[in-house]
Write a structure and sequence with these properties.
By secondary structure, the protein is an alpha+beta fold. It has five helices and twelve strands.
Length: about 280
């Protein structure tokens, strides 16, 4: 083994030894400045790698709850939310969207491309959901994110407790802001549509009045003669007929016309039926 003290030791080619730098004429302070600069450069390069988008993608693979929630929020941001017909209600609705959570026990495989969508037949009203589908990935999956769309608007509520079988009076009702989408049955917006009708289930003070809470009006009985009006774009045609079924509000009533043809129309008043084309 060569023990000559003048023999240079083995060093890394990327980091020149201090002795070699000294032999080339560098002063000690210059040597340490060069080494410090190299260390800083290495640290900056390492930080750039950690902060790169690819590093974030690996840290938060698509399939995690937080990443999927961003897809849902982006879709909802681009969707048309419910709006009031101000010509009828007189005031705009206030819409509030509340996101639920996926089942925490659900484990989804990483996915390269996720598509958020509104499932067919669903609408952004009340308790609904948004679909999330993996379109590119080792494992294809499809899940539904629960969403609640609250639609606040003016509607009728009960002033106090109203028991079943009680005919509604004007003093039993008042207007208040309610969540119109909280129930499948539509909220009642006009007092004249329900005053005098019988309550079929108990109402509590402040409870929103729904169409199913009152007994449907029967405008005529089976066998009664009725006046049928057919409405369409730019025309209005009247005819006479005979009711084959009772004319209950909100239900289709079968009417036999004078020529023998049977049609289905909407009862709208005392012995009055309308068909919209």
């Amino acid at each position: 083994m060569d023990t000559n003290p003048n023999t240079p030791s083995s060093t890394s080619p990327s980091a020149p030894a201090p002795g070699l730098l000294h032999d080339l004429g560098f002063e000690p302070f210059q040597i340490w400045a060069a080494l410090l600069s190299a260390l800083v450069w290495l640290l900056l390069c390492g930080g750039a790698v950690l902060l790169s988008p690819s590093a974030h993608a690996q840290a938060s693979p698509v399939g995690e709850s937080g990443v999927l929630q961003a897809y849902v929020q982006s879709l909802l941001h681009d969707q048309a939310l419910p709006q009031a017909d101000t010509s009828k209600s007189g005031a705009p609705w206030r819409v509030e969207v509340v996101l639920g959570q996926l089942d925490p026990r659900l484990k989804l495989a990483p996915c390269d491309k996720v598509k958020a969508y509104v499932p067919a037949g669903m609408r952004l009203w009340g308790n609904t959901r948004v679909g999330l589908r993996c379109e590119q990935g080792a494992v294809r999956w499809n899940v539904y994110w629960p969403v609640s769309v609250k639609v606040w608007g003016q509607a009728l509520v009960a002033v106090g407790t109203v028991r079943p079988g009680t005919p509604l009076a004007m003093e039993d009702l008042r207007m208040a802001e309610v969540d119109l989408a909280s129930h499948a049955s539509p909220a009642v917006l006009r007092a004249q549509d329900v005053v005098g009708r019988t309550v079929v289930r108990q109402l509590s003070a402040g409870q929103s009045l729904r169409q199913e809470d009152v007994k449907a009006r029967r405008w005529f009985a089976a066998g009664d003669p009725v006046r049928l009006t057919v409405k369409g774009p730019g025309f209005l045609v009247g005819s006479e007929g005979t009711a084959l079924t009772a004319g209950d509000e909100g239900q289709c009533a079968k009417i036999r016309l004078e020529g023998g043809r049977v049609v289905c129309g909407e009862p709208v008043g005392a012995r009055q039926v309308e068909i919209f084309l």
